[in-house]
Design brief:
five-stranded mixed β-sheet; alpha/beta; about 550 residues; 15 strands
């Protein structure tokens, strides 16, 4: 990307920006100019580098020197270190939390070297606002290949054979959805990229759109060619202003370079993309609700039975709706071939998984790992384990509709089907780690509080059922639980799952079901002993050596 002696890459993802990365970027430019180093030092912004907990982050290439928790005051020393006689600043290196040993290169840090970053390959390495950077790493080559070397049917066959699955609860095969949309009758068809990431603790879509927007656009254009669409929408929530800004820049640049618009690259294929900013409703992650939202209507799922979106979506036209990660995978599959993609992961879950690793874990951030990796490898090898010598208690995957899995699942492979079997799911890639100080009843209450607030209210089982479940959980955490409450929660869960219109209601009870299944003793302690074993529920905290009568008097 540059003939200069070194390039200073400054993470400009949302996490690092909140830590002052923009000011550091400006100060670095000023200091390099002041020392007249412009001929030998290049300053560049990048998207999210992943290790958000250690931000703001700086990487110096080509040596791959990694600085974390950089402050504005560090800038003069960093620039001095770039002089011919300068040396890297050891105090800004990552230090191993166990040995205290400094690790200068990010490729040697366990958080990175245990990952397999393919979808995120460009995040943290290219300027997301410069299409030249994207082209320099092979951007839009897959589009050229698809347009000039492949028929639409061949593109779909490539995706089908790859085994790529979507990020809905069931992980539906992407290629089959593309095929259904292509053969659906109708001249007018649409593409929608679902970037309405509303799960607490999840930020993989946001980081991908912020850090590598052209990869998402390229996947959408290829999809448009494959199914015969001429128009696409990126549905992104307005709470992601940086993602919206960079997508707008990317779309403008793609049009200027001939990758969007009329007669793309002289192929005769027309396709353009528009951004639609959602209002931040969790239920709009459901396909029919999202479609209605784009049409200017209230985002509510359509009642069953209904045609699939692939047959009758936007304005009742065939519409292909996929997630951000799904589209970002497409250029890789077209460029490297389905066999490459299918060779990674497990038999039924191919490729990689991206997780927003958060909670009670030493290394928080955005990670990409091969399907089939165990939870233990993710939490301990990449995440660095539980801080403060605390014991691991549970991990919640799949967002508010996912499940909480105990330590007995640490060696379970992470893939679509294993997670569903355990009572959880892949979802949008949230992974929240909990330690021994976490109350599982309170956790279930927290997620129920979220889903009941996000219910569109259209169907009674979801609207009233989640409300009733929340009230029961709230009573339990206040010491007002009744012995029959556990069975009542199970009964309500069953009714909501089988009676709700959409996936929000059908999956809302998952946190309750898994915490009862794996942590039933905590519910019983709250109800029968009026005691919170984790010491979280204020009314149920016991003083050491106190009698039951003193509980709730703190």
């Amino acid at each position: 990307m540059s003939n200069r002696r070194c390039t200073v890459l400054i993470c400009q993802g949302t996490g690092c920006i909140s830590g002052g990365a923009e000011q550091i970027f400006s100060s670095l430019e000023e200091e390099v100019t002041r020392l007249n180093l412009g001929e030998s030092v290049q300053i560049k912004r990048t998207g999210c580098h992943g290790f958000c907990q250690r931000g703001p982050l700086i990487v110096i290439e080509p040596e791959s020197i990694f600085y974390s928790k950089v402050k504005l005051d560090d800038v003069p020393e960093i620039v001095q270190s770039l002089l011919p006689e300068g040396k890297p600043l050891e105090r800004l290196f990552y230090h191993d939390p166990v040995t205290g040993k400094p690790i200068p290169h990010y490729g040697d840090i366990p958080f990175y070297n245990k990952q397999e970053r393919t979808v995120l390959r460009n995040c943290g390495h290219i300027d997301p606002e410069d299409i030249g950077d994207f082209l320099a790493v092979g951007g839009y080559e897959a589009l050229r290949k698809a347009l000039f070397d492949m028929t639409p049917e061949q593109v779909i066959e490539e995706v089908k054979h790859s085994g790529l699955r979507g990020l809905g609860g069931a992980g539906f095969p992407t290629g089959r959805k593309w095929e259904a949309c292509r053969v659906a009758p109708g001249e007018e068809k649409y593409i929608i990229c679902n970037g309405d990431e509303g799960d607490p603790g999840a930020f993989q879509d946001r980081s991908t759109m912020e850090g590598d927007p052209h990869s998402v656009l390229e996947g959408m254009i290829i999809a448009g060619y494959a199914i015969g669409a001429k128009k696409g929408f990126v549905y992104v929530r307005a709470e992601y202003p940086l993602a919206v800004k960079r997508l707008k820049i990317a779309i403008t640049q793609a049009r200027e370079e001939g990758f969007l618009g009329k007669d793309i690259l002289g192929s005769g294929f027309d396709f353009d993309i528009e951004i639609f900013q959602g209002a931040g409703a969790f239920v709009c992650g459901e396909s029919t609700a999202l479609v209605l939202s784009i049409q200017g209507k209230r985002g509510m799922p359509k009642p069953l039975p209904r045609p699939r979106t692939a047959e009758a979506g936007l304005w009742d036209k065939p519409t292909l709706l996929n997630n951000v990660k799904t589209f970002a995978n497409i250029p890789l599959i077209i460029n490297r071939g389905w066999k490459w993609f299918a060779s990674r992961g497990t038999e039924k879950s191919k490729g990689t998984a991206i997780f927003s690793l958060t909670g009670k874990v030493a290394n928080c951030g955005l990670i990409e790992v091969p399907m089939g990796i165990t939870l233990r490898e993710v939490i301990y090898d990449i995440g660095g384990g539980i801080p403060g010598g605390k014991a691991f208690k549970a991990v919640q995957t799949g967002g508010p509709s996912g499940g909480c899995l105990p330590a007995s699942f640490l060696d379970m492979p992470v893939d679509f089907d294993s997670l569903i079997t355990a009572g959880s799911m892949m979802g949008s890639g949230g992974m929240v780690v909990m330690d021994e100080d976490t109350c599982m009843v309170d956790v279930a209450r927290y997620f129920l509080d979220f889903t009941r607030r996000e219910s569109c209210g259209q169907c009674i089982p979801c609207r009233l059922g989640t409300e009733q479940m929340f009230e029961i959980l709230d009573d339990i955490t206040k010491g007002q639980g009744r012995p029959e409450d556990i069975e009542l929660l199970l009964e309500l869960s069953d009714a909501i799952i089988h009676g709700s219109l959409c996936a929000l209601g059908k999956t809302a009870p998952n946190p309750v079901l898994t915490t009862i299944r794996y942590f039933r003793g905590e519910y019983e302690a709250h109800i029968d002993e009026k005691w919170c074993p984790a010491g979280v529920c204020r009314e149920l905290i016991k003083e050491k050596g106190s009698s039951p009568e003193t509980v709730g008097r703190k």
